[in-house]
Backbone:
C-alpha cells in the first residue's frame, strides 16, 4: 500500500509517559502502559487533562472516504500533503483509501516518511541542501522500489543539484518537475520563458530527469470571491500551457509525466482546468483529512457548493476555566502553545457535561502563550473548573503542537495518533 504497515503498527508499543503532554495522569504510577495496553482499558475522554487536542473518529473516516471518492470520480490522482498531520498512521489510512503517494514540504519530513517505508514521495519544493541531496540519492540507489519527485524553478537550482548528485556518485537520476509561479506568488519560475529554460537545463543534466510540471495556486488567492477564482483559473491555464509546451518542445523523460497543483482550497478548479489533460494530474490537498471550524470551513470547495456533502471538522481543543477575574471574562488553561490562532481564534462550542447554553454570546478575544481569554455575558454560570470544547481553525498549525492526539468516538478514546513535527 506504499507504507510499512509493521512500522506503523509499532507505534502502539510506545509507552505513555511524561514525553507526551496528552498522556493521562493516571498512567504515571509504576511502568507506564503502552498505547495498545491503554486502549485495551476502553478509556473515556474524562481521563485526560487539559489543555488537550482531540480528533473525531467519524469525521476522519468521512473526510478520507469523501476525498478519495471525489478524486477518483474526477479522474485525478491524490498525493495528500503529509505536512498537515505528520502522522504516519493517518498517512496509511489515506494510502489505503487510494492515495498515489505522500507529498511533503521539506527534507526532515521526507526522512519521517522514509522511516515508515513510504514508497512514493513528492517533495513540493526544491531540494538544494548538499547533504540532503546525497542522502536522497543513497535512498534511491538503495531501494529500487522508492519513487521520489522534487521541484526546480531556476537554472541555478538545476546546476547545483546536478553538481552535488554527480559528485556524490548517485546512480539513479532524480525526477524533477519544473515549477511555475507568478508575480506576487511564492516560489516558481515567473513566466513560461523562464520555466522553459529551467526545463532545458534539466534535460541537459545527467543526474536529473524531466518528469513534469508543478505549481501552487493557493499562494495567489485567499478567498472564494469571483476575482480570486478567476486568478486561480488563469494560473492553472498557464500551467497547462507550460506542460503542453514542454511536452512538445523538449519531451518529458518519464513514461507518465506529472502535472501537479491543488491545495485544499481550490482543488475543484484544478479538476475543471487540468482534468482530462494528457498527464497524471496530481492533487496535493492535505488539510481535508482534518478540516476545521474556520478557514477551510469557509473556502473548501465542498463548502462552496461542489458536491452534496461537506467535509467535517475532525479536531477540537479542550481547555479548563481557571479564573473568572470579572463577571465578563474567564481565563482557560490553553494558549498559543496548544491551539492554532494564525487563521482565526478558537470558537467556544460547548461545556463538558453542561451543553452549549452557558456559552451563549461568548467569544475568544485573545490567546497568550498558555491562556485563552473568553468574554461572556455576566449572567453566564460558567464556573471555575468547567471544561470548554473549542472549534479550531487551520489544522496545519494545530497538530504541530501535539505529539500524541486522542481519537474520540463519542466519549470513548479509540486511538492515539503519534505525530512527528
Residues:
Amino acid at each position: 500500500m506504499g507504507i510499512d504497515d509493521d512500522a506503523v503498527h509499532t507505534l502502539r508499543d510506545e509507552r505513555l509517559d511524561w514525553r507526551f503532554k496528552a498522556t493521562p495522569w493516571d498512567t504515571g504510577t509504576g511502568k507506564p502502559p503502552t498505547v495498545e495496553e491503554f486502549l485495551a482499558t476502553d478509556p473515556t475522554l474524562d481521563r485526560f487533562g487539559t489543555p488537550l487536542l482531540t480528533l473525531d473518529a467519524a469525521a476522519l473516516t468521512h473526510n478520507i472516504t469523501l476525498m478519495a471518492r471525489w478524486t477518483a470520480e474526477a479522474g485525478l490522482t491524490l498525493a495528500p500533503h503529509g505536512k498537515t498531520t505528520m502522522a504516519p498512521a493517518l498517512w496509511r489510512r489515506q494510502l489505503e483509501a487510494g492515495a498515489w503517494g505522500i507529498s511533503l514540504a521539506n527534507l526532515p519530513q521526507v526522512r519521517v516518511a522514509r522511516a515508515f517505508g513510504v514508497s512514493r514521495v513528492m517533495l513540493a519544493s526544491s531540494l538544494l541542501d548538499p547533504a540532503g541531496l546525497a542522502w536522497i540519492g543513497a535512498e534511491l540507489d538503495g531501494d529500487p522500489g522508492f519513487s521520489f519527485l522534487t521541484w526546480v524553478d531556476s537554472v541555478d537550482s538545476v546546476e547545483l543539484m546536478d553538481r552535488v548528485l554527480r559528485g556524490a556518485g548517485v546512480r539513479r537520476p532524480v525526477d524533477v518537475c519544473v515549477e511555475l509561479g507568478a508575480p506576487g506568488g511564492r516560489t516558481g519560475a515567473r513566466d513560461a520563458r523562464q520555466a522553459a529554460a529551467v526545463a532545458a537545463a534539466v534535460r541537459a543534466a545527467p543526474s536529473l530527469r524531466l518528469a513534469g510540471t508543478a505549481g501552487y495556486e493557493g499562494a495567489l488567492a485567499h478567498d472564494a470571491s469571483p476575482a480570486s477564482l478567476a486568478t486561480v483559473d488563469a494560473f492553472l491555464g498557464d500551467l497547462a500551457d507550460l506542460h503542453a509546451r514542454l511536452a512538445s518542445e523538449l519531451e518529458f523523460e518519464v513514461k507518465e509525466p506529472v502535472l501537479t497543483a491543488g491545495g485544499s482550497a481550490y482543488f475543484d478548479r484544478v479538476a475543471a482546468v487540468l482534468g482530462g489533460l494528457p498527464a497524471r494530474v496530481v492533487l496535493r490537498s492535505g488539510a481535508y483529512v482534518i478540516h476545521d471550524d474556520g478557514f477551510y470551513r469557509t473556502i473548501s470547495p465542498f463548502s462552496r457548493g461542489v458536491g452534496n456533502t461537506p467535509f467535517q471538522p475532525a479536531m477540537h481543543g479542550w481547555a479548563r476555566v481557571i479564573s473568572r477575574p470579572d463577571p465578563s471574562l474567564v481565563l482557560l488553561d490553553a494558549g498559543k502553545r496548544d491551539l492554532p490562532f494564525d487563521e482565526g481564534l478558537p470558537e467556544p462550542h460547548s461545556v463538558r457535561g453542561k451543553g452549549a447554553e452557558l456559552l451563549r454570546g461568548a467569544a475568544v478575544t485573545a490567546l497568550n502563550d498558555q491562556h485563552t481569554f473568553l468574554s461572556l455575558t455576566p449572567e453566564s454560570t460558567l464556573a471555575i473548573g468547567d471544561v470548554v470544547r473549542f472549534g479550531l481553525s487551520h489544522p496545519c498549525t494545530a497538530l504541530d503542537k501535539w505529539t500524541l492526539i486522542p481519537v474520540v468516538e463519542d466519549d470513548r478514546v479509540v486511538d492515539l495518533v503519534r505525530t512527528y513535527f
User: Anything to note?
Assistant: Residues 226-249 form the longest helix (24 residues).
